[in-house]
Amino acid sequence: MSQQDNKEMAKYFYRASAADFKKIPGSPIAYWVADEVLGLFGHDVVGDYVYSQGSVKTGDNERFIRNHWEVSSPFIGFESKWRLHPRGGEYRKWYGNVLEVVAWDDNARNHYRKDFVARIPEENFWNLEGICWSEITSSETSFRVLEKDEIANNKSLTIYMHRPELKNYILAFLNSIVSKELLSFFNPTISFGVGDVNRLPFLLDKVLSDNIRCAVDELIGMSKRDWNEFEVSRGFLINPLLRIEGKYIKSNYIDRVNDWSVIVGRCRELEELINEILISKLGLGKLLNKHVLIDKITLKTNPAYRYSISSSQVDVNDRFQSDTIAELVSYAIGCMMGRYSLDREGLVYAHAGNVGFNDLVAEGAYQRFAADGDGILPLTSEHWFEDDIAARIEEFVRTVWGADTLEENLQFIADSLCLSAIKPPKKGGETSRETIRRYLSTQFFKDHLKTYKKRPIYCNAVHLR
After folding, report:
1. Tens digit of pLDDT for each residue in 259-288?
2. CB burial class (10 A; 0-12, 13-18, 19+) of residue 79?
3. Single pTM value for the model
4. Angle made by CA atoms 349, 354, 360, in degrees to the nearest 5
5. CA nearest 176: which of 148, 212, 209, 151?
6. Which of 297, 196, 303 is nearest to 253 (CA)?
7. CA–CA gap between residue 254 and residue 265 (Å, rounded)
8. SS3 145
């Protein structure tokens, strides 16, 4: 072959040495790997600093796993019948996807030990802090902290640190652009196992940085607060629109959106700081950049992440406003049912059969806004009952924001629901009260089922039209 032919061939083909492949654990055929990346291999790997003992496999999830809202809160915890049980879930970094619990009493643990399908980690792994991620993902792999009171499922792979003080550095590295690039060499599929993560080169001296440690603490904190803004979190305290003093729901909403935007911006700033430090210290400046796309900031209060980035900005903002107001309506109904209260933060009552409810009433748990005594609320398409849900929504709005702004606030609720939550958005001549009633009678329970994963906390026993 002539020299000219060789030059032509070089335009279309990579030249790679077999010896270079051997530098990468497992020797994958990654012929495109740059010399700067190859130079990272041959040193320590993540597996030198972590270990894994596997996760819980029940062998019968229908029997042993529940959503946490299906179990009385006092029975969830370290020494309780149920333990929090991450099972993977959506693309989310730093903290979250903690929706389920696993049976953890003596009988359940004995089953996990003896069943030929089930498995249980050794006891010294039960109360350890770790790092977990979803075994299978439809997008990128995202890594989250596993807290001490959580036991991971086999679909939520977990590693533990030999030195607990290294958790932040390892978590920062795994969620960085550097890790994303390296993981693509080992496994281009949608499934990343513990072995894939353990093979990643990890140069501890390059990662140790007070800036990284502090950034991860802040990112975990912001991600946890974001997770707790929503009813499905065990840490939910109050609807975020009620955290702000004011007379108008619209003003409260605008203030919260501005606050959330600042938090999203701060998360992006910190993730880019981590990327910048790692890229610089590992000498990858010619190959990678620090930038993080806005839809990769995995906060549910970030509309770009929560909804498709391909949607127009107007559509995203409208949907976010509509969903936020629908969540306010859900919280108001929770107050009617006694689950929440304007007088106390967090979950107030979650029992069946009114057990203990009268004691809460006697304690003054529902002074500002009374909970329904029997937990039965009429849900009708027309105003047949004085105390139906639509009438009590009006009472709730009046109680929280005042009688003098009631009409403006009801109109904002109705207009917001029409942006996305209900179809058709507007009927000719429909008042705000009629729109809210239409949402409640046609769409609320569908949204409730979706929010609570078809395991609702309220029953739609009678639906009158």
Report:
1. 999 999 999 999 999 999 999 999 999 999
2. exposed
3. 0.90
4. 50
5. 212
6. 303
7. 17
8. strand
